[in-house]
Amino acid sequence: MQEEKNIDAAAAGFYDSVAADYDAMTGFERRFVLERPFFRLLVEQNAIKSALDAGCGTGFHSLLLSQLGVAVTAVDVSPEMVRRTLQHAEQAGVQLKALQSSFAQVRNAVDSNFDAVFSLGNSVAHLLNPNDIFDALAGFASVLAPNGTLFVQLLNYDRILLKRERIQNVKQVQQTMFVRFYDYENDLVRFNILKLDKKGDDVEHHLLSIPLRPIRSTEIASLLRQAGFAQVSIYGGISLEKYSPETSKDIFVVARR
Hints:
Blueprint: H1 2-26, H2 28-45, E1 50-54, H3 60-67, E2 71-76, H4 79-92, E3 97-100, H5 106-109, E4 114-119, H6 130-142, E5 144-155, H7 157-163, E6 167-173, E7 176-185, E8 188-199, E9 202-212, H8 217-226, E10 231-235, E11 250-256
Parallel strand pairs: 1-2, 1-4, 2-3, 4-5
Antiparallel strand pairs: 5-11, 6-7, 7-8, 8-9, 10-11
Helix pairs in contact: 1-4
């Protein structure tokens, strides 16, 4: 229990620190055009009227789902991420609920039976041991309606661990460059964000780091079944393309009880 609290506190501190740069680093505005068609299909095919966005970040998927007519409750362990989600919702003119909660406390934080739970953006990888992952997945199951659907997105650690890739992403926004990279540490990986700011002839740098569990496709499928999900399908992304352990960028899981 204390280890779980320490992990939650570390994640909250990490994302509080990165929140101001998160939208620029992830291409917040550009992603609406790219991802809306896929989420519209998910909403229509699964008759989603209400959803929990677990690990909402600055609210991109919460806003997108709200714009598609879904009643959204957004949760994140980071208070600053929750604040920015509410700010984005106000600016976009959409109604949603947003509150601070760890995955372990989700079942106590919300009181609805949702048509869907979305845990995207590699959020579950912040849970560092199988017991905590199981608890989170069981918590998601407990807030789903009887015919509800869970969607989980992870990076494809089957491929990443095979190739031992260090550089995950490089993005430049005006005079600022963000480099996301991994260090490999036994059973975990250390996720680093290096921010480089060009100031005249000088370059200022700032590094943030946090450990992640590189969850393989077989592990997430097994834990989902243990948590009560009888139907587990694994895809290579939100477009539901076929999953390839060697080449897919993501692991995208669709699970039903």
